[in-house]
Design a protein that fits this description.
Oligomer: single chain
Order of helices and strands: HHHHEHHEHEHHEHHEEHEEHEHHHHH
Distance between the termini: 42 Å
CATH superfamily of the largest domain: NADH-ubiquinone oxidoreductase 51kDa subunit
Number of helices: 18
Number of domains: 3
CATH architecture of the largest domain: 3-Layer(aba) Sandwich
Strand order of the largest sheet: 6-5-9-7-8
Radius of gyration: 22 Å
Shape: globular
Strand content: 5-15%
Length: 421
């Protein structure tokens, strides 16, 4: 039985309040690093743990921290990406609502490691409860000396600010998020320079996801060896999986990284609804290419899913059963990406526009011979030709649907109707 780490306070009464967090060992990691470790030692510890970013890209966190120049003539910043706009994903919201001090301690330890005195939590404005709980937690932490001037009697000064977004999916992309923080229109920046060298206000900046930062205090207290002992060595640690869709027990599950997708869906989430069979699963939010039922024995980690032609992404696992039309699902997903595209890149802006028109025509029973080839051509024009991964995610998802469920698209075109509805 896996013992929860990140979700240990989720069902505890008043788990979002400081006394409850302290009673479970909260802020001991912050006290430990301030008392016993230099910033470089904390960076090395996170490198040894092989913690990889939980926001989608899976980049090694310690390596990202190491890119920040030690000597800089500008202040360093830490930014928490709490926008969580990926459909099917709700893990960060639960942490912020139920255990916000876990995030705040992770921010403080991480800021100490990289030499930052200021952190910004960029959170989507729809997360009203999470925003209120974070504001309350920041006030409690200030009052007890975990934030502010001279944290816990040390010479470390640290402040956390909350910045509310307006629900734009593109702000999940780190450089678009920085543009929004600076009061500009949220559009991805050309890289290089990377944020570690020139990020917020052209200063050295580290950007981490909520779940990533929540792992840091546990690594400090339990050690890198403990963290690497959970799951595969190349993608270790506890992981939060968001289960939704046509499954008996949807919800948020904390399990080891690398658990087989089939075990996650059938055993933990209870399998498909009565009388139904699983048709496919989207393993990492709608940016992740769909996996058909026969491929569900893949391990839920970065490398295994990449080898299987998909990705872990945000671990937003969406289950699709045999009553559902894949043409309809694919159309809705591409409509979402088209709507959320910032419009900066011509391949993304125009390519997704045409893809939506073709998909809507097919779904309406008005498809024509050559439509599928046109969709494949559009994917080729979008993929790898954009500033950020939004266009790539859309193209990969569309390609996977056409590859694994081409017969459904062909049926829509030949029979001029949807066989499911």
């Amino acid at each position: 039985m896996f013992e929860p780490v990140l979700l240990r306070n989720i069902d505890v009464p008043d788990g979002h309040r400081l006394p409850t967090y302290e009673a479970g060992g909260g802020y001991r990691a912050l006290a430990k690093v301030l008392r016993e470790h230099t910033p470089d030692e904390v960076v090395d510890l996170v490198k040894q743990s092989n913690l990889r970013g939980r926001g989608g890209a899976g980049f090694p966190t310690g390596m990202k921290w190491g890119f920040v120049p030690k000597l800089a003539d500008k202040p360093k910043y830490l930014c928490c990406n709490a926008d969580e706009g990926e459909p099917g994903t709700f893990k960060d919201r639960i942490i912020m609502e139920r255990d916000p001090h876990q995030l705040i301690e992770g921010l403080a330890v991480s800021a100490y490691a990289i030499g930052a005195k200021t952190a910004y939590v960029y959170i989507r404005g729809e997360y009203v409860t999470a925003i209120r709980r974070l504001e309350q937690a920041i006030a409690e932490a200030h009052e007890k000396g975990y934030l502010g001037t001279g944290v816990l009697g040390s010479d470390f000064n640290f402040a956390v600010h909350i910045h509310c977004g307006a629900g734009a999916y593109i702000c999940g992309e780190e450089t678009a998020m920085l543009e929004s923080l600076e009061g500009k229109r949220a559009q991805p920046r050309l890289k290089p320079p990377f944020p570690a060298a020139a990020g917020l206000y052209a200063s050295p900046t580290v950007i981490n996801n909520v779940e990533t930062l929540a792992c840091v205090p546990h690594i400090v207290m339990r050690g890198a060896h403990w963290f690497r002992g959970i799951g595969p060595d190349k993608s270790p640690g506890p992981k939060l999986y968001c289960l939704s869709g046509q499954v008996r027990k949807p919800g948020l599950y904390e399990l080891p990284m690398g658990i087989p997708l089939r075990q996650l869906v059938e055993d933990h989430a209870g399998g498909p609804l009565p009388g139904r069979r699983i048709k496919a699963v989207i393993p990492g939010g709608v940016s992740a290419p769909v996996i058909p039922e026969h491929g569900l024995d893949v391990a839920m980690d970065f490398d295994s899913l990449a080898a299987a032609g998909s990705m872990l992404g945000s671990a937003g696992v969406i289950v699709v059963d045999d009553s559902t039309c894949m043409v309809k699902i694919t159309t809705r997903i591409i409509e979402f990406f088209h709507h959320e595209s910032c419009g900066k890149c011509t391949p993304c802006r125009e390519g997704l526009n045409w893809a939506v028109k073709v998909l809507r025509r097919i779904e309406a029973g008005e498809g024509a011979p050559g439509d599928l080839e046109q969709l494949e051509m559009l994917c080729k024009g979008i993929f790898g030709n954009t500033f950020c991964a939004l266009g790539d995610g859309a193209a990969m998802g569309l390609r996977a649907a056409l590859k694994h469920f081409r017969d459904e698209f062909v049926t829509h075109i030949e029979e001029r109707k949807c066989p499911f509805h």
